[in-house]
Amino acid sequence: MTLLSSSMGLRTTRSSLSQIRDSRLRREQEQRQIRDNSRRMQELLAEAQLEAGHDSLETMDFGDEVIDDSRDEFAEDEPVGGPLLSEFFLTCSQEREPRVRRRIDVRTRTQRRQHANAAWKEQMPILVNSYLAWRHGAPTVDDNAMMSNIFHVDVVGISGFARAITIQQRPNEPANGALLRMGLLGCSPLQPTIAIHIECLELYHQIRRRQSSFSIQAITKVLCSLHNITYFGQLRDQFSDAFDIYLQILEEIRSRVDRILGKDPNTWQINGACPSCTFKQPNESILSPARLHAMDGNFSAKRLDGSGSADPRLFHSRYFISEAEVDQFKDDVRRRTSESSTVDSTISSACTENWTAAKAVDDDKITVFDQTGIFLLACRHGLIECVAEMKHSGELVLDVCGADQAIGHDIACSSRKTIATSSIGAKAADLNLQVVVNAFHGFSHDRRCQLQNHPLYLNGLGLEDLETCERIFASSNSAAVLIRHASYFHWMQFLDLHFDQWDMDRYLDLSKFLYNNYVQALQIIETNTPVLEDFKQLHNLTDADFISWRNEERDYLSEVATEPTSDAIAVAYVEQLEKLQYAEATYGRLTSVPFLTYTPANFTRTAGLNAAARNNSRAFESEHTSALRKYELQLNVVEDFERRHSFTERWLPYDPKYVQAVRYSQERQFIRLVEELEGLVVQRLFELSKANLAGTGYKMRKYISKAITRRSATIRTALEKYNRLAPLQNPPRPVLDYSEIVGYASLGEFSVLKHSRHDILTKPWTVSANREMAAKYFKLVRSHEEIVRLNVEIKRLQSWVEHEDRTMLEAIDSLLADDPDSLLIAELKTLYAKRHRINNNHRKRLQQIYALDRYTGERLPTDHTVIAPNGDRDDEGSVNGPEDDAMNEEAMRLEDLMSHSL
Fold first, then answer.
1. Residue 184: which H helix or E strand, with range?
2. Contacts of 340 (CB under 8 A, 6+ apart)
3. pTM (global) more than 0.85
4. β strands within 612-693, DSSP E
5. Which residue has the higher pLDDT, 83 or 539?
6. Which among 258, 254, 217 is positioned nearest to 239, based on CA atoms?
7. For residues 536 and 528, is the Cβ–Cβ distance under 8 A?
8. Which of the residues 241, 495, 530, 587 could staple to 627 if both were Cys, CB 3.0 to 4.6 A apart?
């Protein structure tokens, strides 16, 4: 066959036309097969990334494979024809090549997330076992003998970034199961292309537990900087997905271990987490109240409504009360304006205005937050018992904790009323539930409220200040910057992680708490006892006198808490008469202008007057008409008041009843001024307490400093008004100095200044020295109560550390006998080593308590030498110096991770 070459010459070949046609058909068929395979591969890769939860198809640009079929079987030979003909054939070949279209996913983000969650959930048991095998170095069979598949992933670690790492996958094993056996975790459930080292996830896990404001974006940027990679949002999403699964694996392992140890996940946190509160012992002293709790709300943990709506996952927390349990109390309590109860509402009426949480909620208020905060309950040792989303948690306390419980709340006077009018009111009364105010917040309450609700004056509360929630919130507020726009899943996950670490730290410091409180109580007893004895001998007093002073003051404040109806009516009547006198005097002044004695027949209002005179006349007439109208209106008001209250004769300014009512009205004005001064001091106390708060930012501190300055100037102004009216009272009140008023530590002093009737200033409990000694007396009584409670709690902790070590060793032995190959055996041994070190730390501190000179509790024997699970003897008593348990725990964990990474 003769063909035209590119040099315009003739070339002869041996191929026939049929052979050329068959070769061309085969070539086209091969090209179609290659294109089909390429398209199928791209669809699989796109599906894998969609399952990983990527939001946009723009991030899945794998590139289009362009197959160059411009060259045929004659490529090695010089083609027939010139350059023009060659370009023509090349153009036609490109036009015939079909384009590869990118797959379009029509699923929503929620659907893609649900698909990925279902895939992760299905393989979770295998992932847990694979993680345990890697963590504890369990022996495995030869992977080459069981290998069914090989795939490659890019690996992100702390020290480096590796590409195309070969992973051997066993038959019927998910890809992430194979990755976990090598200490890696993929970012997608089915076909991961990126994997993260477990040591990297664990490092962020530990950082996050101790610094809640450290975000996933921050750790991702750190890794990008270490590995010289440009940061973009998809990397953050991949790390977040892997971290969520890692936490689920850890939680599943913890649940398995808890089941072996017999811990009920529904009640353990509130009825077992704190051994000093819950691990009761036989023949121990009866405590009343049996347990002390603290509850409060925190508005910093709010979440914007609609944030993360594409994430349908629900986080199962061991702290949070389920939404279904909370919602049953949604409409349980009637609004305060319509509720009727036997609870004394006058106690909380004066305190409610000081607290935002105690005021009625406006239903018409527009809100943009789905979660407006959290409501937390904790024991007095700081361990968190339960958390709710700004809802009701009293039912759980009554059902689980039992009778004779005491709860501290900053608005206890209002909370008691709320509980009494709810469906659990009868149960709370039967079980003797006490709701008291916190020690610090209590001083901002009304004096009468303090005498009835403050821990200083209540039996059995000891030295507990019940301000535990404030300390917890000061720590958890660091997470607020991350959870404000988070999904509901991550909102609860972040808080749960923070609270879990908080409880671990509080358990570590439990024996330290007992030791410090014991020393504090002994110091107060040593200091106050001789002072009170000298004072009682000097003034011929007994302990009963201090108690009677408190009762007398409480009864007096109860008597004057509500104003007599007759006095209120008299004051209101005098106020209306004074208004009538003023209106009558104004009208009389305008009608005292001399009038003409005769009126001409042709006289008009403006006759003979110029324009200026006419305008003045109209103005005078308008003023006269207005004064007459006001006088008549006020006269009608007075007559109506007299008719409604059965006044037969109108009081005159010289009547004795009128003079007495005027004097009492002036006293009421003085009381209002004292209350205003009291409120300013309350606000200043809170501003001073917030000024040096560790978690307060620079801008907030600057704002508080300016507010304190303004408040100080306002206090000076109110104090000047007080000093002008104080000498005019009967009896005269003392003139106060600014340094005295801002130094008031107890706002009960204001109650003495308010009232003058019944000869209050002649009472012994109004004397400043007597009040100070009474406070020392009650502090001394509470210190003795604290010693009794601490003796019980110390015995419980000592018994618990022995019980826990013994229980865990028995669980390990039982599991070895039943299932020697169980991966949980190594996990239990690791947990035992951790808890045993902490318990030995408790044993040392308990020995320090036993060594105190005035320790009055029971001394239980303890054994520092305990047989460890590996058969070695663990003698903590021979260690030189005290151990830092937190540092030991982290050192062991890092050593374990480094051994696997190397």
1. strand 184-186
2. none
3. no
4. none
5. 539
6. 217
7. no
8. 587
